Amino acid sequence: MKIQMIVGLGNIGPEYEHTRHNAGWWMIDELAATWGASFREDKKYFGKVAKANTPQGEVWLMKPSLYMNKSGQSVSALAQFFKIPVEAILVLHDELDIAPGQIRLKQGGGNGGHNGLKDIQAKMGSANFWRLRLGIGHPGDKSLVSAFVLNKPSRDDRDAIDDAIWRARGEINTMIAGDMDAAIRVLHSGNPK
């Protein structure tokens, strides 16, 4: 199934703009720039949306304008209005369980405690959407996670995350076309050791 909607997860407000939790927004901004798409605030969808003309056809881009733990409200509003099935949604998000610079693409599964994914699963009634997991690393202790994701990465970590975004951007048309196996082969083999 082709991807019809790409969602970048992040937190609203300038204080969060450069924090690890906004890695999904960093990538969706790159995609919008690549396709010359401009985001506009749309209160009906509780987010900023853009329609991108890609080589694979039109795709909706979304940045929820709610805090991370309410992301599902935005995703479900747009998906329901345009009748986009959950399997045709790709969510870009930060991932604690993999190192900066690594990428994992998968469909479904658990939410790993990620509040954005948790809310999307709840509001969509399914976990069967695609996830592009952008590694941000882990602080080493569960009690440090909140402060870690809501702070800026080191310069080296940010460079590694940006490199991962660049590599993922190179496979985005393959993902949109629905050839996820091909995208996984390329993205997973390019992960730094």
What's the helix and strand layout?
Elements: E1 5-8, H1 23-35, E2 40-42, E3 47-54, E4 57-64, H2 71-81, E5 89-95, E6 103-107, H3 115-124, E7 130-135, H4 145-149, H5 155-170, H6 172-176, H7 180-189
Parallel strand pairs: 1-4, 1-5, 5-7
Antiparallel strand pairs: 2-3, 3-4, 6-7
Backbone shape: globular
Q: pLDDT below 50 for ≥5 consecutive residues: which ranges?
A: none
Number of strands: 7
- At the fourth CATH level, what is the homologous superfamily? Peptidyl-tRNA hydrolase
Structural class: alpha/beta
Oligomer: single chain
H-E string? EHEEEHEEHEHHHH
Largest sheet: 7 strands, mixed
- Count of the domains: 1
**Number of distinct helices:** 7
CATH architecture field: 3-Layer(aba) Sandwich
Mean pLDDT: 94
Strand % is: 15-25%
Q: At the third CATH level, what is the topology name?
A: Rossmann fold
From the structure above, extract its key features:
single chain, 193 residues, alpha/beta, Rossmann fold, 7-stranded mixed beta sheet, 7 helices, 7 strands, 21% strand
Characterize the structure shown:
With 193 residues, the chain is α/β, with parallel strands linked by helices. It has a single domain (5-189), classed as Rossmann fold (3-Layer(aba) Sandwich). The chain is 36% helix and 21% strand. It is built from seven helices and seven strands, in the order βαβββαββαβαααα. It has helices at residues 23-35, 71-81, 115-124, 145-149, 155-170, 172-176, 180-189, and strands at residues 5-8, 40-42, 47-54, 57-64, 89-95, 103-107, 130-135. It has a seven-stranded mixed beta sheet with strand order 2-3-4-1-5-7-6, sandwiched between helices. α1 (23-35) packs across α5 (155-170). The longest helix has 16 residues, at 155-170. The protein is globular, with a radius of gyration of 15 Å. It starts with a strand and ends with a helix. The model has no long low-confidence stretch (mean pLDDT 94). It catalyses: an N-acyl-L-alpha-aminoacyl-tRNA + H2O = an N-acyl-L-amino acid + a tRNA + H(+). It is found in: Cytoplasm. Belongs to the PTH family.
